[in-house]
Amino acid sequence: MWKAHTKDVNCVRVDRTLGRFLSGGDDCTVAVARLPLFSPLATLRCEVGVLSVASDHSRLVAGCEDNRLRLWDFQQAAEDCTFQDTQAWRALTGMAEASRSQLAHQQALGR
Q1: How far is Cα 72 from Cα 58, in angstroms, rounded to an integer?
Q2: Strand, helix or coil at 80?
Q3: 30: helix, coil or strand?
Q4: Which of 8, 72, 80, 87 is the most buried (most CB within 10 A)?
Q5: What is the pLDDT along the chain (111 residues), one digit of tens a residue?
Q6: Burial 66-76 (b: 16+ CB within 10 A, else e)
Q7: Domains of the chain
Q8: Phi, psi of 96 (to 5 degrees)
């Protein structure tokens, strides 16, 4: 059995499309494993506990206890940058446009 964390696990993400399992915990790490056998790919370290994780084909983002987002490049397994402002993160990833579309739709519905 694969033991990915030494303290409590706070979040888990399974991406069947990319064949990855991600988890973040109080031990200040993000564990990345390959599915379906949970073979370890990487352990990424943070300065504080990890509360949430998400990824796409080339990047991983972790939401941490210090209210910052940390971004890694999967190819290099190195931390690219740290974001304190979630608007900066959304703008970087293109989520800002999706959020505006959703807001416009809600306004059209009178919500």
Answers
A1: 9
A2: strand
A3: strand
A4: 72
A5: 568 899 999 999 998 888 889 999 999 999 989 888 888 888 888 999 999 999 887 888 899 999 888 888 776 655 555 544 455 445 545 544 444 555 555 566 665
A6: eebbbbbebee
A7: 9-84 (2.40.10.480)
A8: -60, -45
